[in-house]
Amino acid sequence: MGERLRTAPTPVGADGGRGPGGPVGASETASGGGRPAERAARAEAALRILQAHPSLSDRAVAESTGLGARTVAELRRLSESVAESGFRIGRDGKSRPLNGAAGRLRVAELLGENPKASLRQLARTAGVSPATALDVRRRLERGEEPVPVKRAAIAPGVSPKGAAPAGGNGFVGGFGRTG
Length: 179
Fold this sequence. Notes:
mainly alpha; about 180 residues; 9 helices; two-stranded antiparallel sheet
């Protein structure tokens, strides 16, 4: 009764990245003997995973390295060597867009062509959830824009990355310092 069922995380590669040369395995064995790696080593491992698999979600990388999701997000934001992708693959293996405005606009376009289309048909064609298709339909019925103002304010294609401090990436280097 008190047991919880959990699904296994989606593997990074064929061996799940846990092989001797894999980025996930490197984070687990950086200190040897199966002990948790030092925080600086885990941050470096997270950065290697982000560079090799930029579409993995921050939580998926955090789970693999033993860091927090916020720490991984900060590493991603500060690193110039991590490629940007328009989507993230979560721990459940599902792909999610970073900006859903394009899908919402596509639903609005499809509704213009066929106002009687079912929500499932709209969602499947536009690549969004049925709930999103319903929200767009209701917004258009009320005379609103298909994309909420909050989401429309985020301009597509604008990089959220901040500039790294001079002399390299000080964020990862700061993990090794004590006191």
